[in-house]
Design goal:
about 210 residues, alpha+beta, seven-stranded antiparallel β-sheet, 4 helices, about 25% helix
Length: about 210
């Protein structure tokens, strides 16, 4: 696993309580036993961040798409299609508790393959106390829902026990939150490089950087 270089990373995090604002800083240590009020995540500076708790995220996303695809001379129709897909992903995420959306442009491999950003969607999945499934049970449920193309296992991250779901282009970490508060989701996509790549290793390292505050 390649840990992100602290010299080229940005600290990201948002108060996990509903309605609270964004905060920054560095957290460390083992997962607390109480339900956390905040989290810290190390994300490289070249990942464009959208705060999905703020209404202006749509304009920021449009600015990102226009800027990135102008550089690569991507056809306007393709640019609009990618903008629409990213917007739909963000809107669906917001409806399901998403807090942040990170994007990283990957170079296209050939003129006929437009650049498609890698992404990280950070979401809060709160559950009532006593109803939070054990990671092994949660993994079994996901295995029933997902097809054979998904590899699902339970791993231990510094932030806690985690159900990890891997496909060729996606990498999801469902981290059980302390204090029986629910699950916290880090959903990565790597549509160009795939998860078996240096980018996939970086996604894994970002997930390992998660700390509760």
């Amino acid at each position: 696993m390649t840990v992100p270089d602290p010299g080229v990373t940005a600290e990201a995090g948002a108060d996990v309580r509903v309605g609270a604002g964004t905060a920054v800083g560095a957290g460390a240590g083992d997962a607390p036993s109480e339900a956390p009020s905040d989290y810290r995540l190390l994300v490289p500076r070249d990942w464009f961040r959208l705060d999905l708790t703020e209404d202006r995220w749509r304009g920021q996303l449009k600015t990102f798409v226009d800027r990135e695809f102008l550089r690569t001379r991507t056809p306007a129709e393709t640019s609009r299609a990618i903008w629409s897909a990213l917007r739909n992903t963000a809107e669906s995420g917001v409806a399901r508790g998403a807090l942040e959306f990170f994007l990283r442009t990957e170079p296209a491999h050939g003129p006929d393959r437009p650049t498609v950003p890698a992404s990280l969607l950070v979401s809060l999945k709160p559950l009532p106390r006593g109803l939070v499934p054990e990671p092994t049970d949660f993994a079994a449920t996901l295995s029933e829902r997902r097809g054979p193309e998904s590899r699902i296992d339970v791993v231990r991250l510094p932030a806690g026990e985690t159900v990890r779901v891997i496909t060729a282009t996606t990498l999801d970490f469902h981290i059980r939150m302390p204090g029986d508060a629910g699950y916290f989701l880090l959903a990565f996509t790597a549509p160009v490089s795939g998860t078996k790549s240096p980018l996939g290793d970086l996604c894994d390292a970002i997930a390992h950087s998660l700390r509760w505050v």
